[in-house]
Write a structure and sequence with these properties.
432 residues, mainly beta, Immunoglobulin-like, Deoxyribonuclease I, Chain A, six-stranded antiparallel sheet, six-stranded mixed sheet, 6 helices, 13% helix
Length: 432
């Protein structure tokens, strides 16, 4: 088991070997703790000058390896991708000089390149666009890849906005020569405490375990995860789920429970807890040494925006979940479950408000943030089609209570895309 410590991500560091100043690649994880170094420039925009809901306060920019990173702060909390039409939209206007003009329309969920006499749509994968958080917020960080559009060393990219708000003047970002040492890699160290178990999660996309093309890839990913417990979502048909599970090799599916499109596979005995849950299943896992953990695989309602009917249903589902955990603590599901640590993992679908997560945190759970090894990016969803309307976001979350988190990763699978979600893996230890 490994623990990944991201060493000074987002800060400008000085190499002890070469004496060169090194620009470190920012981590797009929705945390913002790296947006404070001298290699960035910030422009403040007056509040109250917007013609729609998107009112820009500050914009901070940085380039790294011909990628453009932006930290956008708004005057109010909004969803970038969806919302009432009365909000209008916000667009990023990038003047790439001879390389053309790139326009990102947030509410339109489109990117277009205007070069010469041609205007063409740009798929999110081509521009490498990622933005977090995915839920409504007043601050967002994002990355755009510009190398493939012809941006080179010394080129000036002018950044402005349009639609609901615009800057008084564009930000001029001169793309600098990159250091021979391009950032600091993730630092891998042995954990001070050995992990007692590993849990993995994957939304399999429409009964993916039995899909003729994706099924073998999904099952191979599950088997190679070395997880003791695997949670899945979107396994809507139990008979198809049972068939897909039967194809798995080894002991990962020795014990299985399912309800409401969600499943839990375990190498160890698991007892389904009779919680009243909507699109979720809960089980009590008992390890060889007798220690136990309650695992809840969830799939909250998708779509919508803050305040929408879908968002209200997610809030209702989170409230119901907390109520059932309280019943468990009150011994309504037996003495063994009463004191067991809890993991709530799965597709939270936080594309509206953050309130469903806040409800769980207020109930005593804490969030664990899985990221990619090496760059710290935290998105867990990416459309399988290049013309997918929504850009990559963070839908799959992990919260827990009563355990020590040793490591949490988003497992990359660009060459074998078995789902529109990426697998999460977390290593945990019981309290000493």
């Amino acid at each position: 088991m490994r623990i990944i410590l991201f060493f000074l991500l987002g800060f400008v560091c000085v190499s002890l070997l070469s004496g060169q100043e090194i620009e470190v690649q920012p981590a797009v994880d929705g945390v913002f703790n790296e947006w404070s170094n001298s290699g960035q420039q910030t422009l403040t925009d007056p509040v109250g000058d917007a013609t729609g809901a998107f009112d820009i306060k500050t914009v901070t920019v940085q380039d790294f390896n011909f990628d453009l990173y932006l930290n956008l702060e708004l005057d109010s909390s909004l969803n970038l991708q969806s919302g009432p039409k009365s909000d209008r939209t916000l667009k990023i206007d990038l003047d790439l000089g001879d390389c053309g003009t790139l326009l990102i329309d947030f509410r339109g969920r489109t990117a277009t390149l205007n070069k010469g006499d041609s205007i063409r749509p740009v798929p999110w994968q081509e521009i490498g666009f990622v933005s977090l958080p995915t839920y409504a917020a007043d601050r967002f960080e994002m990355r755009l890849k510009l190398r493939d559009f012809g941006v080179q060393e010394g080129d000036v990219v002018k950044i402005n906005f349009s639609g609901s708000d615009e800057l008084d003047k564009p930000i001029r970002q001169i793309f600098s020569k990159q250091s021979a040492i391009t950032g600091l890699p993730a630092k891998v160290e042995q954990p001070t405490q050995k992990a007692d178990f590993r849990i993995a999660n994957i939304n399999t996309l429409r009964n993916g375990l039995i899909d003729k093309t994706r099924g073998p890839l999904l099952r191979a990913a599950i088997e190679s995860s070395e997880a003791d417990i695997v949670c899945v979502q979107e396994e809507w048909k139990k008979e198809k789920f049972d068939t897909g599970v039967s194809f798995l090799q080894g002991e990962i599916a020795e014990h299985v429970i399912w309800f409401g499109g969600c499943g839990i596979l375990s190498r160890h005995p698991i007892e389904r807890l009779p919680m009243t849950l909507d699109r979720a299943v809960a089980g009590l896992v008992t390890f060889d040494d007798g220690r136990q953990v309650t695992v809840i695989s969830v799939h909250f309602k998708a779509a919508g925006f803050a305040g929408s009917k879908e968002d209200k249903l997610r809030i209702q589902q989170a409230t119901q979940l907390v109520s059932e955990i309280e019943k468990m603590r009150n011994q309504q599901f037996g003495k063994e479950a009463m004191q067991a640590p809890v993991i709530v993992i799965g597709d939270y679908n936080l594309v509206g408000s953050r309130k469903p997560l806040d409800i769980l945190l207020a109930a005593g759970l804490s969030e664990v943030l899985p990221v990619r090894q090496g760059n710290g990016f935290a998105h867990t969803w990416q459309g399988l089609k290049e013309d997918e309307s929504f850009w990559p976001g963070r839908l799959d979350l992990l919260t827990q209570a009563g355990l020590k988190s040793l490591n949490a990763e988003v497992m990359e699978s660009e060459t074998n895309r078995y789902s529109d979600h990426f697998m999460l893996v977390g290593d945990f230890a019981f309290p000493e």
